[in-house]
Amino acid sequence: MYNKLYAAGSSKKSIDFSIFAHSFEKLIGIQYMITVNNLDVQFGKRILFQDVNMKFTPGNCYGIIGANGAGKSTFLRVISKQLDPTRGSVTLGPGERLSVLSQDHFAFDEHTVMDTVLMGHTTLWEVMSEKNALYEKPDFSDADGIRVSELEEKFAEMEGWNAESDAANLLSGLGIAEEYHYSMMKDLSGKQKVRILLARALFGQPDNLLLDEPTNDLDLETVSWLENYLSNSDHTILVVSHDRHFLDSVCTHTVDIDFGKLQMFAGNYSFWYESSQLALRQQQNQNKKAEEKKKELEEFIDAIPEIPVIVRDNIKEDARIKAFDLKKRMLYDIKEFGEDNEGE
Question: Which of 15, 39, 262, 272 is the most exposed place for a label (fewest CB within 10 A)?
Answer without folding.
Answer: 15
